[in-house]
Amino acid sequence: MSRARAPGKLVLSGAYAVLSGAPALVVAVDRYVTADSAKAPTFITPEVRAAIASSTPPHFDAEGLRENGRKLGLGSSAAILVASLAALALDAEPRLGDAALCERVYERALLAHRAAQGGGSGVDVAASAYGGVLVARRVGGELSLNQVALPSGLHFQIWACAGSASTAELLARIAAFATRDPAAHRACMGAQSEAACAALEAVQRDQAADFVAAIDAQASALSALGEAAGANIVTPELAELARLARKLRGAFLPAGAGGGDIAYYVGRSAPPRELAECARALGLWQVELGLGARGVHAL
User: Fold this and answer.
1) Each residue of 2-28: b (16+ CB within 10 Å) or e?
2) Residues 155-287, CATH architecture
3) pTM strictly above 0.85
4) Domain at 3-149+291-298: CATH architecture
């Protein structure tokens, strides 16, 4: 019997626009789901059931992706799925190293996750499987992945929001907006795509200041998209923090679909106490996370 674990993720750049071909930057974080094939499951997620229809899946522990009694928005469904498939793969081949284990589970996890959720970009599955920092881009229906390094000299702080979000509901509102007003939708998505491309260019050129500017531009673009679509992507609390971060020469952005859950600050220096005080007053709390964590692996 085998144990495996897979990391959660943060989407740093390219939310929503990744679905139409723009590059996303996704990073694995050092909070993990552990799966243990020696134990019977107490709960089976829809994603795991889609991947393992004819056998009993392993037990999993996802408490690492939760805090204060709720999930943090770190891609728990993907991490549970990848860890579960990895534990079963190790039952069959106990000596699999990280790269071989990732190769065994990634495609299967990606297909099952999309089937259970009715679509999605797949970047959370990629981060849980591969780890590190990834550029992900949809090309002809496939997800193209490349490992990269974030620009040197950046400082990150991760914050959890008081409210949780439904990614499915937010995506549905964006889809309805696209049907209702295609031209306005294209304009909003164009601004987000342009800022996502700028973030990738900053990564490729190792330009910290340009990366921060591109993330700040995404805060504005996502706010405009949410307002036009009637989707609360950038909540009032996060909008206030984005304005303050901008004054401090940093940026503050929802880490993914928005609407609550998890967000982050990035700047070329550590944020001053003023930002942390404002965040706490608005009901957020800081979450200690390491970025660029190891992907799926055996325990």
Assistant:
1) bbbbbbbbbbbbbbbbbbeebbbbbbb
2) 2-Layer Sandwich (3.30)
3) yes
4) 2-Layer Sandwich (3.30)
